[in-house]
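If you are new to this repository, start here. Below is one unmodified record pulled from the training split, so you can see the exact layout before writing a loader.
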Amino acid sequence: MSSLGQALGSTVGRKYVMAVTGLIWAGFLATHLIANFLLLAPDGGAAFNLYAHKLAELGPLLWVAEGFLLVAMVVHIYNAAMVTLAKRAARSHRYAVSANAGGKSRKTLASISMVYTGAVIGIFLVVHIWMFKFGADYQTVVDGVAMRDLKKLVVETYENPAKAGAYMVVMAVLGLHLRHAIWSAFQSMGLSSPKWMGVVEKAGLAFAIAVSAGFFILPLAIFLGVGQ
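And here is the target side for that same chain:
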């Protein structure tokens, strides 16, 4: 195995890869959220449908971007699983009695539930993509151009209280996952010195709240008829 392969296969290396792939998805989530707020525009879905249509027109470039995100997600999940298994193996061989390492514990609900929140998010992504990318192909016309009426599908979905409620629950889980993931990613990449750790943690918390709250609000607003 090459030195690079050995480094990436170590626990530290795997955490670094997890950090990079996680931040890639964090960036995607932020841009996806901004675009999704077009759903609330009181224009009959024109802006959102036009945006989705322009993306579809990218053709192969869109497939490459989607493939890149898919690879990033698979790599993220794989390395998360490997790190988790390594930690469990280490715990099974630890001494029966160990001394307290001292210092403030960084364990939180978010940190100890990362595997579970990650699993929920992974399952949600599969369902979400299946529902909207491969869902009903309604048609509409915007500025004289025929295109898919994706907003109609989204509205139809979240007018269902069970689906809207399930989505909002998952978005709360997403917030919990991001709460730990963001600052942990910067720490794993060696970009967070003790001097700036507090700032990074607060920034990570703010990002987690903004993204999860934004995605939480969307189905609720649609259910209440905003932008329709």
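Two things worth knowing about this chain: The chain has a mean pLDDT of 87. Strands lie at 139-142, 145-148.
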